[in-house]
Records
---
Amino acid sequence: MARKKKTSPIEDLLDIASSINWKVSLLIALISYFIFHHFAIQAIPLSSDLQSVTNSLPKQIFINFSKVLQYIFPVIFIIGACVSSFKNKHRIKLVDKQTGIDSIRDMSWQDFELLVGEAFRRKGFEVKENGGGGADGGIDLVLTKNGKKSIVQCKRWKTFSIGVPLIRELYGAMTSERANDCIFVSSGNYTAEARLFAEDKPIWLIDGSELSKMIAEVQVQPNIVKPSLLKQSVTTSPQCPLCGSAMVKRIARKGANAGNEFWGCSAYPRCRGTS
């Protein structure tokens, strides 16, 4: 796992300021100025008595720091508010301008993470973006809703299918983070083995077609045509002949067809329909 790059306190504070709502950042900037200014204008206590000087030293230090912090804190949070506002507008444009899976696959991986985060945000989740870059332990987004915590990993892959190793890593991260479930979002597809691994676990796999449908549902003015998605969904995932549930691809482990793919009912083991 890549080591997280060391940052200064100012950089950490700027990250916090830019990750929260820009209105909140502006409010913090205003409040912090008045608080530090209140102490900055106070007179530094003077005394010739050594004991009094020693006792007043912490107050003198705080007053001197306040003279600087009354400007530094507000400036950091004002800059953070500007960055937060820009990112918010960028997220909105990312979601509303998408026209289908091809436009989604053409964006950068950074924008892909922002797109997914904004889509979940519009579905009512609180979203924390980790920023990617390889130091996030495989967690790109942290979602919270109704007291439940979900972790998300995003992969903007055009040609490769997501296999079991990446799903297993995310499942391990979910356990260590004590999350309720985990979500893997890809612009591509998943192998049959990956879907089988996730089947009986709190793991949700969202592929390219499902992501397109999700984006269309949260767009202000949908640019993605839903009927084609529904048609594609029927074509790629047939209904179970026994119960009518969606079917998923599995790998036969026993018998003459061992190792071959087949369609199995997603309601297994309640339903054992195949095709």
---
Amino acid sequence: MKSEIQNANEMEYIIFCIENVAAKLEIPAETVYAALTEKSDILDRYIIPNYEILHTQDKGYIVDDILSVMQEEGVEV
């Protein structure tokens, strides 16, 4: 099920997530985006629907949470 981005704040949050996961892994943001959209549906199924909860957390928590979900689902970058 594809989630729709509702506003500019959600779009900025998604970019923030992708860029910071990429920075932590020291890989290109494009690679992270592909992992979250092409290799899995984590962006549509987890990140966007949980925006209201996750965007209130600090950067370290958000990045670690996304990496944890990726690991649980066997998504490799």
---
Amino acid sequence: MSVLAIVPARSGSKSVPDKNVASFRGKPLLVHSVVHGLAARNVDRLLVSTDSPRYRDIALAAGAEAPFLRPAALAGDLSTDVEVFTHALGWLEHHEGYRPDVCVHLRPTSPTRRVQDVENAIELLLSDPTADSVRSVTLAAQTPYKMWRLGEDGTLLPLLRTGPLEAYNMPRQSLPPVYVQNASVDVVRSSVILERGSMSGSRILPYVMDSFGDVDDWRELALLERDVPEGGVPRGLTFAFDLDGVLASLVPDGEYGRAEPLAAGVALARRLHEAGNRIVVYTARGSATGRDWLEVTRAQLLRWGVPHDALHFGKPAADYYVDDRMISLATLESWIEPGGQSRRKSA
């Protein structure tokens, strides 16, 4: 079975100009997908389909094939994947007499996918002759069983008509799991593309991944580069931990001496500190009343075993804090597995 990987990289992105060659960890974005495809043991050929001579030069320098420039008509905002793949397969068959059995779709916007995920998705399709394609998916953060659409008469109608009766009134935990495609790796038989005009066909196998991170704008690209370190736990960074509600339990009437440690926050602060990061604890204790909580807080941090390089008072009491570097404890935990490896594999 011949396997061809294609990296589509048009030059006309509106959200991020020249997104597909934007720098990510010192390399143009599309180069990461080229590297993934070339490293996969079950990929026979890899080519980049682009409309840009500059992108083509970048692809060639990275070791990809780029035997043609894609027509401008197939590089617009509304151009579809099936058009791009049909063009590439048609060009190869016409000029080389080459037609692969399987095509792998590697989007440049997933620079942190694992080579193993590419290989596994291919093997999954090859192991089932009845399957048309494999699509990588992630467990959806929101369930469509609790989503609605507006009827013509202005009433609410459930988005899904299938599933449990009145699913929208049921606890989320009791509803069927739902998955969303994460754009990391898709594998499809060439015959499905050329003979049915489809990138998926009718029998699609899931390749389930545990993360989602498609890059669509500058903010996503910056967050991905800053927050997904190579090798797992970040090192050499400064993490500012709020005290109450993150490291300590919230208490009524500001009686902070009654606070108890929050195990998840304390454990995460310890792991980050042990990995070589700087931990700063900051708090609004006493800012509204003028009471001095310094000694009580120091004793609590010592007793709870919270590592910290600095303790800052003077944070103003407020209902909401707006911060361009804000990250929730849950999100930070989701990036780091107990074994010290980042959970996020895609993007």
---
Amino acid sequence: MNVRIANALGVLACAGLMAYALYAQHGLGLEPCPLCILQRLAVIALGCIFLVAALHPAGMLGRRAYAVLLGLVALLGSGVAGRHVWLTTLPPERVPACGPGLDFMLESFPLSEALGMVLSGSGECAKVTWRLLGLGMPAWVLIALVSLGTFGVVWNWARPTSHPVSRDSRESA
């Protein structure tokens, strides 16, 4: 498999994650908390980088730049998802109080302050209303971001774009 196909698979994986997130929101009625929204943004950003990498026939330097971007976005998203998982494991007496909605925070506070408030988490971020195999959605997003980030870095960092057949191997056949 060549690197552009691998990146296209990354796009499809990110699109699948977002499709399920939208189904969970609109089909199952699970409203995303502010940390969920940041995780969605990380998945969308990862998908966009995979898309550009899939469409662009980059050389080694370009592929390495994509690898760094994919790794960075996956790391940032994993940090948010990890924080979210941590909040869901807190005992009830240690869960922070529910805060204002993301729209209110973005309208009322500077971006850096609103981001700090979101990352500190709130009571609504600590609720686990959906599980699969014992893990809540933030844990699955963490697994997906780590997996996709690793996949993207490995495939874009060192993989050649194609495996040309040398003249020596053709003559010996």
